[in-house]
Amino acid sequence: MHRYGLIGRALSHSFSRDHFTRKFEQEGLADHRYDLFELDRIEDLPALLAATPDLRGLNVTIPYKQAVLPYLHALDPVAAAAGAVNTIAIQEGRLTGYNTDVEGFRTSLLELVGDARPRALVLGSGGASRAVVYVLKELGIRFRVVSRSVERGDITWDLLDPIIVKACPLIINTTPLGMHPEVEAAPDLSFEAIGPRHYLLDLIYNPAETVFLRRGREQGARTMNGMPMLLAQAEAAWRIWNAAN
Asked: Which domains does the chain have, with CATH numbers?
């Protein structure tokens, strides 16, 4: 049996199992399966690996994209540069970390903004934001990271005033605010400062339109949810696992 799965803390919202189960069925891979592995803490990962010796690969989601790094034997250069991992290839007990969020986000961002390179606000400074920052630097897009901590961001939420929001036409939500089941939540920013020149990209895909995206759309902004990024990063993960095994 070729087994794959997703590790994270709360996975009831995840699309990954359905996505890969359909893929295995479509490709006639009856000996492949994909499971959800909810871990209360990242320290439980070695026990999971020991109990599931036929695992060939894992996806990694909130809140373990950075916390998983000490458990890996090697890092792909992109993952090392991004400082976060969302895909692990397992070969003969050796774990190699990759960041396919980078490819997924790049694909989504270019679809949304085309040739434009607008100044950006990155909402959140967790593991998901690392891939976003990597791509913005790669594309030469100037940006500021909004964080609860001055050590992890450029500005804190209390300093995010309407002037900054208006001056940054590209706003990217990397926080879980608004994700199922807390669908009424949204990042605390001045939506009245958003207009038709803005692009709003949310990494959340469930629900399809978060409060963040809806309020931006109502102000005339162009919006995109996290589904295109999710599909692109999943396909990149599948290529990595096939190459490793």
From this structure: 2-99+229-244 (3.40.50.10860), 102-228 (3.40.50.720)
**Tokens encoding 58:** 């894992």
Contact yes or no for 170/199 (Cβ under 8 A)? yes
Burial tier of 143 (Cβ tally within 10 Å: 0-12, 13-18, 19+): middle
What backbone phi and psi angles, to 5 degrees, belong to 56?
-105, -20
Q: pTM for the full model?
A: 0.90
CA–CA gap between residue 25 and residue 21 (Å, rounded) = 6
**Per-residue pLDDT tens digits for 18-66:** 999 999 999 999 999 999 999 999 999 999 999 999 999 999 998 999 9
65 an active-site residue?
yes
Distance CA 232, CA 136 (A): 17
Active-site hit among 23, 65, 137, 166: 65
Q: Which secondary structure element, helix H or strand E, spans residue 170, and what is its range?
A: strand 170-173
Contact by Cβ (8 Å): 170, 142: no
Nearest partner of 138 among 82, 57, 63, judged by Cα: 82
**Cα torsion for 133, 118, 103, 206, to the nearest 10°?**
90
Number of H helices, E strands in the chain: 8, 12
User: In whole angstroms, what is the distance from residue 200 CA to residue 212 CA?
Assistant: 8
The percent helix, strand, coil of the chain (3-state, each to 5) is 40, 20, 40
Task: Report d(CA 143, CA 128) in Å as an integer.
Answer: 15
Residue written as token pair 């594309």: 139
